[in-house]
Every structure is written in C-alpha cells, then in structure tokens.
Amino acid sequence: MTALRRLFFFIVSLFLALPLIVVAGVSVNQRQSLTFPPQGFSLAWYGQIFTNPEWRNALIASLTLAALSALLALLIALPLAWFLWRRIAPWANIFQLLGIAPFTLPPVITALGMLTFWATTGFYGQPWTAVISHGIFFVTLPLVTLSLGFSAIDRSLVEAAATMGADDKMVFRTVVLPLILPYLISGYAFAFVLSLNEYIVAYMTVGFTMETLPIKIFNALRYGYTPTMASVTMLFLVVAAVVFGLVARFGDLPKLLGAMSEDK
Amino acid sequence: MRREPPQRLVDYGPLVFPAGMLTVFFVVPFATMIAVSFFQRQQGGFYTPAFVFDNYARFLSLFFGKVLGFSLFLAIAVAVACVVVGIPFTYLLSRSKRNVQIVWLVALLSILSLSEVMIGFAWSTLFSRTAGITNLLVWLGLMEQALALTPSFTAVMTAMTYQAFPYTILVLYPALVRLDPTLTEAARTLGASPVKAFFTVVVPVLRNTILATLIMVFIFALGSYLLPQLLGRPQHWTLSVLITDQAIYQSNMPFAAAMAVFLVLVSLALVGLAFYAGRQKEAK
Question: pTM above the 0.90 mark?
Fold first, then answer.
C-alpha cells in the first residue's frame, strides 16, 4: 500500500514538475534556441532580466503594480473585516460578498468590466488604473485571511482591555493589531504574488501603454522565442515559493488554507 | 468589547472607504458592462448608447453555439479529471505528516500562482519538437523521431488540467483534512481494505463536497483564456478567448460585454448550486 501510495505521489509530482524542469533546462541554455537538454550552461538569460532595459522595465512595472495593488487590497479589506467583526450589521455582509465576487467569477469578466469602466471615464491606459483594478480584483485574499484572523481573536482579551478603559482605537492598536498581524502579512503576500502573475486584468486596463512581465512574455511569445521567458518564469516560481515558504515558516499555512476555502 | 450594532453615525466610519471603493470600482464597472451590452455598435470600434438586443441575438448563431458547447465540454472534462485524481491525492496528503503537507502546500500554491502565460509557455516547450517530451521518447527508443504535440486538443486539456489541479486540491483540502479519521479506522477494523474503505466511507461522506468542488473547478476552468490560444487551434477557443478577442482585436465592446454578462449568469447559477450543495452538507 505504501509503495502504491509513493508511486501515486511520484506520478503527480512528475506531472507537476515536468514542464518546470524543461523550462529550468532551457533557461540555462547557452544558445538562443529552444533545445532540451540544454547545450552548454549559462546564466546569461537571468542577467538579461536585469540588464535588458525592456525586461527590466517590465520587471519594475510588475513589482510596483504588485506592491501598490496588494497594499490597496489590504487597505480596503482591513477596515471592512474589522467592522464586520466589531459590529452587528447583517446588511454590511453585502460588501464582503462584493469583495469575494471578483475572485470567484472568471477573471475575464472583471477585466472587461474594468476596461469598459476606464474607457467610459476616459482614464483608459493610465498606469494607476491598473493598481486600482488589481487592488479590487485581489481584495478577496486579504479579506479572507483577515476574516479568519478576526474570528480567531479571543473576545475576552478585548473585553478585558475595554474594562480597563481602552477605547476602540487603543484596543485596535494594542490588542487587535498584534493578533491579526500574521493574517495581515499573509493576505498581503497572497495578493502580491498573484498580482505579479496576473495577465488579463492588467492587459485589458494598461496592456497598450505599459508592459508587466506576464504581458511582456505573451507579447514576446507571439514573435517567437527568447530564453529570457524561461528565466523570468523560473524567477517568478522562486519568488512565489520563497514568499509562501516564509508564510509557512512564520504562520500556520495548513490552518490558513483550511479555513480559506471554507469561507468561499 | 462585545459585538454591538452601530449606534452613532461615526461608527460607520470604517466602512466608508471599503464600501466606496468596492461600489465605485466594482459595482459601477459591472453596471457599465451590462449597460454596454445593450449598446449599439458603430463602425470603427465605437458604440453609442441604445437599448438593443442585437448583441444577445448573436448568441443564436451556430458559431456561438459551437464555442459555448466546446467551452462547457472542456471545462467539464478538466473539472472531472482534476477531481478524480485530486480526491485520492488530497486524501492521502491530509493523512501525511504535517511537514510533508506544508512542503506540498507551498509547492501547490507556487504553481497555482504561476501566470497563465508562463504555464502556457512551459507546456508549449514541453510539447515542442526541439525541446519537448518526444525527444525523451526517441532517446528511450520508443519513437522514431521527435515531433510537435501542439496545437492540439490534448495539449489544451493537459495544460488546463495542470493549471486547475493545484486549485482543486486547495478547495478539497479543508474538507478532507477535517474528515474524522475514526470513520476509516472503523471501516478498517471491520475488515475493509484501505481502497475499499476509501470508496465506501470517504467518498460517500464527501459527496456534497465533491459536487461543490466539481462546480468550483468548472468555473475556474471556464475562466481560462490563454491556454486555448497558445496551445490550441481556433476551434479550441473558449468563450473567455472569444470575449477577449471581440473586446480587444475586433473592437466590438457591446458584443464582448453581452458574452461576459452571459458568462456571469452561467457562473452565478453554478456558484449558487455549489453553495446549495455546501449547505446541504452542513444540514446533515
């Protein structure tokens, strides 16, 4: 039975790893051709991401967009999650639903909604519209982690603080914030990594004026192949693995995921 | 500090920013899109406000019917493939050591967050003639010469399954990790083999979870727009691809919006069904 189980796990991991192994292989190819196993070994294509101005600009655009939109998502999610935890206001749940909707529906819908909206208001193509679009699109992630964080707070702690004379602000700063900090960080991390990789919403809002890395890869793919695509893919995979690894190291990843999907 | 209803106006303060942002940048765009779906298209990519059903009437064409049929078929196939492999996998994973679970979860999250562009690129490389898997088969002596496996339906289906598989596991994970282990232990004590215990105890208990997961993965797969484009032929294009194509390349916003509204309705109906299935589980 254990042998059978090992075999099953092995096949699944092979399926998941195979495309990535090939991409890792072609990313260190010495020549600019798509061959596997790689001929020679070179890290030049990784250097390209930072030295070639086109790829570097795309990288900077992606990082800026991800950092800002994840922050915006957090700024929307935090007061909302706090309000829902602090107050009894059933009608306010509608905003929670609105926060979860963009992520549950097929992404092309949010993308098209944003496109028509920015085109109608005349801001189409401005870089900041992508920040708002991503912030709204990914608000689900911090909202879900924060709702989980708030529900884990022992209310007697808060009550003790209130009895001692702390007002809402003080309770938030001294009791609530330290307790939800891990959830705040993991919510930001999830939104950041997903924004970094997101294509369709970014493409439909700023695709013609600005290139993020996924847009850059797609545009490059249409004109043929360059190994930098492979090195960027590897870089992004490593970034995601490091971020989620850190979340797992300093937080309780199984718990975070156990409740994350339940809320959906 | 107990939960209490807001008493003064100022208590609503924290709600202002989130509610405002979600209303202005989600509800309004959504409404704009619905409005545009009724607009009249003009030559040259513009449209004028109107209230016509022309854009919806175009659904009745044979071409649209084929695309819709194919999209639904593809999404169902992907959902079934993912769930069939995902359930035993997640079950075994949830019974593994916690450290093993964490490593797998990090790996699955990393692959899940990988851009669709990158997944498409990775699979097109793996299916290519020069760097692909057929080279390995040639090397093993199983094939005469390497060949390209794209564009094809198999390539689209494989890559979409790859993309949806981590999602499937993360949807199944909470239900399976909380499954009472005594259930299978009891079955084992009574003499059932592990496989029999899995099929006669675990699967029936999770019937509603499985249904809900199928629907969630189905919607997820319905949203795939790049993989059919990168790995398939035009006849493998899905509704999501068609929406993007109409909006960006054909500049027919009203028709794209009408298709998007239709896609929302299909998805919402299915999410409702998934929720209903979830509630049924709790009721028991």
Answer: no
